[in-house]
Amino acid sequence: MKFWDREKEIRDLKRYLQSEPNAILFVYGPKSSGKSTLLMKVAQEMKRDRVEFLWYDLRGYAIEKAEDAISILLGGKGISDTLAKVFDINLFALSIKTDELLKIFKKEKDPFVVLEKELVKGKEKGITPVVVFDEIQNLKDIYLNGERGLVDRLFNFFVRITKVMHLAHVLVMTSDTFFIEEVYSSSALKNTSRYYLVDYFDDETAFKILAEEGLSREDARYVVEWIGGIPWMIEEVVKSDDPKNTAEELYEDHRARLRNFLLECEMVDEVREVLRDLLEGDFELSRNSIKAVKELVKSEVLFYDPLKGNVRFQTKLDERAARELLGKTALPGEKGGS
User: Fold this and answer.
1) Do residue 262 and residue 162 come from a single domain?
2) Which of these, 230, 226, 222, lies nearest to 206 by C-alpha position?
3) Quick check: helix, strand or coil at residue 19?
4) Which of 60, 115, 277, 284 is most exposed, with the fewest beta carbons within 10 Å of its own?
5) How many C-beta neighbours within 10 Å does residue 217 have?
6) CA-to-CA distance for 278 and 284, rounded, in angstroms?
7) Mean pLDDT of 133-145
8) Could you tell me how many helices (H) and strands (E) the chain has, helices first?
């Protein structure tokens, strides 16, 4: 399927990366909204600008201790060379010698000092380095030298290479938006961060995509009513011989996940209350509701926007499932319902 309707986001991010590094940029949004794919497209379009990406995708690694994280950090491990070739992007190559790595693991050298020197080398060659951390929250429980959180050290390093040295851009991508608040409150990030939301397509755009991919107006309208503008789900529907049935199957999966979550959740009464209030348009985030909301966000039922302080259902499918399981009024196009 084509790379759809992200011209504004591409333009915004290219403009940001063409400016002098001066802040950490949090690229956030709901799960599977296309954050990583969008940034790869931006990297592809900036290949001729001598911009190189030091890209860490932390979803594919088992990180249990600081040594694991440092191996990834200084090994330059990130997106694969194959993926880089598919998207035709420039990756920033680290050239850290083995003896230097050994000194780091023996705690004789600071890994962040070594990484900074590598970025300086790139800058001296006329390269603009962009450091990307995808799903960085996977490091939040790792401690460095048994005393200080690795994430705290990383963000202090990010502040240094952006705000202080103007050496490299840093983009932090995450769907765990409560993590952004945790980092902001525990690290010295005031006036050092910017935020950019990458959301699902709106209904109008999703309808346009489906229609241009060959769906009838009736089928396109039905699919949008069920799944909205989730990029990968739109692709599943487009590949299907029966778009309506595919949309309903995607819903059945979401309903089953929410049902299982409610059966296994230890604070089910509080969770149900949050869901009911959201469905009735009478929800306010408070001390009493925050734990339940965090559980629902962690389980990808809800999405929390830390800038606006808004809580919403992650997708139309989750809202539809909550209505059915809690016995609320059915949505348009839904079978049954009470």
Assistant:
1) no
2) 230
3) coil
4) 284
5) 10
6) 9
7) 77
8) 15, 9
Residue at which a domain ends, from 138, 166, 197: 197
Question: 129 and 23, same structural domain?
Answer: yes
Asked whether 41 and 187 are in contact (CB, 8 A), the reply is no
Cα–Cα distances (Å) from 241 to 234, 253, 269, 325, in that order, read 13, 19, 41, 29
Q: Find the domain containing 283 and state its range.
A: 219-325
pLDDT at position 335 over 60: no
Q: For residue 2, give every residue at least 6 positions away whose Cβ sits within 8 Å of its Cβ, in sequence order, or none.
A: none
| Nearest CA-CA partner of 133 in 58, 195, 219, 237 | 58
Q: Tokens 């083995």 sit at which residue?
A: 98
- Distance separating the N- and C-terminal Cα atoms of the chain: 37
pLDDT digits (tens, 9 = 90+) for 287-326: 999 999 999 998 999 999 988 889 999 999 999 999 999 9
What is the average pLDDT score of the chain? 87
Among candidate residues 225, 231, 205, 325, the one with its CA nearest the CA of residue 34: 231
On whether residue 306 sits in a domain, the answer given is yes
- The span from the CA of 292 to the CA of 247, in Å, is 28
Q: What is the pLDDT of residues 160-175, one digit of tens each?
A: 999 999 999 999 998 8
